[in-house]
Specification:
The chain has 112 residues and is mainly α. Helices cover 81% and strands 0% of the residues.
Length: 112
């Protein structure tokens, strides 16, 4: 969890530094808050791997889904605020939907 949070903070700092340099300072605080929330979501999902109450396959699905969802938001933010990413929209949509499928599969595996 510490690795996720440290790297999340590093990415948020990089994105917000570029935002400030481009004169988008009004959006910095909302981006920081959202970045921290999504990093906590990823940490919580990853913590299911070591939680004995979670089935192994369910924890893996939830963790992978959360990671892909995190990546989709990172692609979106980087492409919008830092620098264009080639085929960003395709990568964003693919990782978002695969992440949602992973989260649903994990929840269904655990509680279904």
């Amino acid at each position: 969890m510490i690795v996720i949070l440290v790297n999340g903070v590093r990415l948020i700092r990089r994105i917000t530094a570029v935002m400030r340099a481009k004169g988008q300072g009004a959006l910095v605080n909302p981006v920081i808050v959202y970045g921290l929330v999504i990093s906590l979501m990823l940490s919580a999902a990853m913590s299911t791997i070591s939680d004995p109450a979670w089935r192994t396959n369910a924890a893996l699905f939830v963790s992978l889904g959360a990671f892909l969802f995190y990546i989709s938001d990172l692609i979106l933010a980087w492409n919008k605020f830092v620098a264009p990413i080639r085929n960003a929209r395709i990568f964003n949509i693919a990782t978002y939907h695969l992440g949602q499928i992973g989260l649903i599969a994990g929840i269904v595996s655990q509680f279904g």
